[in-house]
Design a protein that fits this description.
2 copies of one chain form a homodimer. The first copy, chain A, contains 10 helices and 3 strands, in the order H-E-H-H-E-E-H-H-H-H-H-H-H. Chain A is about 65% helix and about 5% strand. The first copy, chain A, is mainly alpha-helical and about 220 residues long. The termini of chain A are far apart. In chain A, strands 1-3-2 form a 3-stranded antiparallel sheet. Chain A has 2 domains: about 60 residues, Winged helix-like DNA-binding domain superfamily/Winged helix DNA-binding domain (Arc Repressor Mutant, subunit A, Orthogonal Bundle); about 140 residues, Up-down Bundle (Four Helix Bundle (Hemerythrin (Met), subunit A)), CATH 1.20.120. Chains A and B meet through helix 3, helix 4 and helix 7 of A and helix 3, helix 4 and helix 7 of B. Chain A binds a DNA duplex (30 and 30 nucleotides) through helix 3.
DNA sequence: ATATTGCATTTTGTATACAAAATACAATAT
DNA sequence: ATATTGTATTTTGTATACAAAATGCAATAT
């Protein structure tokens, strides 16, 4: 009756979903026995999944106390954006040096559904935006780079599928990056990729500052 | 009789040591029961430690087949150096923006034992070099940055405590970075930090190419 | 001699068991 | 009423148990 593949994998996916959807609330303790029963598995593969989530900053383990859903604060979100600026900048540079037309095509394809559209579906665009940034990393073929980009998870969780800036604004920036990659101008590609993240980071900081002061 | 802290932690440290020391050889399969017995623990905390090592690229799990000590190849080492260039460059920039004299002092202190020395102990300097680069990251206070810098482990494993370049050469570069941070010149600090990693990467590539061709 | 099949052994992935630490809470003291 | 202690309950960390997959190897076929 038992089907062997790797139980911890689907458990990991499900838990991640639960955290992003707020089924597991920030700060909430993950009582292993309860979640294991809920998912119909034992604690062993669950713990494996939780350890992976911990490595991705989505949960935090306090020894002998328990594992808790993390609540990324303002500073951490900013910090993640600094990392993204560095890594996506490098990714753009590496792509520009490859002179590969298939790369350009794949990057452009992220946004073709939205070109020449009067009304852009925000949710769809936000998903496309996320894909674009992940693709930028993946297309470099740099495995360690791709593996350490996992912390974009935090970004997903915090921003959800909302957008930091309006599509009109970011669309233009995306194509500036793509065009620099296409012409093989690695310095410019890196510059644009970094400026893009930097701008979003600054907007985010403002939003959070506003939100925090309103709550006072 | 059982002392509770977190067994997987010392197991992780010991396994990492065994991998770096070649007690566990590249490509070798880690038979859980055997290692568990060797370390006098059960498979449960051992598996936890192995999962952490997997996240750090030191071992590789092939489901249903086993967990194997990884053998980083030339491409991966180069790829890691691209990541380091991006991240350490950003770190230097962030430190320069902080205008904190204690940061300068701590960075300088890494190399004070070697200043004005005629003969530099290579092993000691290699250790200092490693500390300097880790400190550069840590002093930013950027937690996600620090957490994703773990892949420097691969570096340690591959290079061991040898040096890519002679101390005279890198010492000068280190102080260029430190001085740029001290004067608060973030652009220059980033430039120097990146150039430093880039040069080592290029030397490494040459060394490996030479070694590989000799073996043919 | 080499390839193939079948069976015994090993090893993995998961579930369960159990001791120690953490927690909750009631009973008592201040 | 609040603080404190002691005890029952929960939960964690680790060890063990067990079924299914992987592996090794001998016996047989080609």
């Amino acid at each position: 009756m038992i089907q062997y593949t790797d139980l911890s994998q689907p458990i990991y996916e499900r838990l991640k979903e639960m955290i992003v959807n707020d089924e597991l609330k920030p700060g909430e303790k993950i009582v292993q026995e309860k979640i294991a029963e809920l998912l119909g598995v034992s604690r062993t593969p669950l713990m494996k999944a939780l350890l992976t989530l911990e490595n991705e900053f989505l949960v935090e383990s306090i020894p002998r106390r328990g594992i808790f859903v993390r609540t990324p604060d303002l500073k951490e979100i900013i910090d993640v954006y600094f990392c993204r600026e560095a890594l996506e900048g490098m990714a753009a540079r590496l792509l520009a040096e490859q002179h590969d037309t298939s790369i350009i095509k794949q990057l452009k394809d992220c946004f073709t559904p939205f070109i020449a559209k009067k009304k852009i579906n925000t949710k769809a665009y936000a998903k496309a935006d996320e894909n674009f940034h992940k693709l930028l990393i993946k297309l470099t073929g740099n495995t360690p780079l791709d593996k350490i980009y996992f912390f974009s998870n935090i970004h997903d969780k915090v921003i959800g599928y909302g957008l930091v800036r309006p599509p009109e604004e970011t669309m233009e920036e995306h194509f500036k990056i793509i065009n620099a990659i296409a012409t093989g101008d690695s310095d410019t590609a890196e510059q644009y990729a970094r400026a893009h993240i930097r701008k979003s980071r600054e907007i985010l900081i403002d939003q959070y500052k506003k939100r925090t002061s309103e709550e006072l």
